[in-house]
Predict the structure.
Amino acid sequence: MTTLTTRAPARTTPSQSPRRVRDKQWPAYVFMSPWMIGAGLLTLLPMAVSLYLSFTDYDLFDPPEWVGLRNYAEMLFEDPRYWRSVGTTLLYVVVAVPLKLALALGAALLLKNLTRGRGFYRSAFYAPSLLGASMSIALVWRALFNDGGSVTDVLKWFGIDTGGWVGNPHLAVFAVVLLAVWQFGAPMVIFLAGLQQISPELYEAAALDGAGAWRQFVSVTVPMLSPVVFFNLVLEIIQSFQVFTPAFAISGGKGGPADSTMFYTLYLYERGFTASHMGYAAAMAWLLLIAIGVVTLILFRTSRSWVFYADEEGR
């Protein structure tokens, strides 16, 4: 005869008191303190000061004078050059980003199946991304596209006389676009890493179903690579809204000809450091931050309909 005995449930006690948890966490805060101090002094504090200055009339020499929303009202309703800078920047983003990503993806697809010399070509294609943001490269680019430059001479040889892109109001902005597209190396490397993660079995299954190269690209490569496309798209759009050095070098810092290269950041620089309207420039900077945030939010919201994550169900 067996007797059943009931065992009292084990008494649960809190594993650690809040005080003991804090005692264990303080070393982490000590090691993080240099970053936290740097973030506060070099990022958060300047942002707070610039936000305050955006509501003032400040010329870098006299104390700031509070003017409320006057800078924002002048910017949005009284300054036509501001809207020209917005239009130029949007044109640059709409043209440069798709071309750059398309070229980067095309180069990555070519390098994916390359067996010999892949390292050399990958380094050669990536090099412009390291050099293109420098002032020296931008000045060389200006010389290439100026009247009498190499690009102009080559086009003349084919019977196309543009008279120099830099001095043409209709073509100057596209010289900046081509400089950005030339720097396709960074997104190319990211695309190449994404392509190498796609299982070859997917292509084999598509080939057995009779899919050709184009169908495999559309039905296999693009969906499986969509997270990488989304990542590159967000980064490139954010960077494109902040373009400055190429526009400054190619236009000589004036945004010419006829404000055709007056990008947003270049106009911000002109108002802040040339005209000494630092309060106005701070207001421009905050509107740019808001615009980038809104565009990024829209991209994240719309990504649910076209970005495919293989580890998520229901996609």
Q: What stands out?
A: The beta strands are 56-57, 65-66. The domain at 82-305 is CATH 1.10.3720.10 (MetI-like fold). The two ends are 59 Å apart (CA to CA).
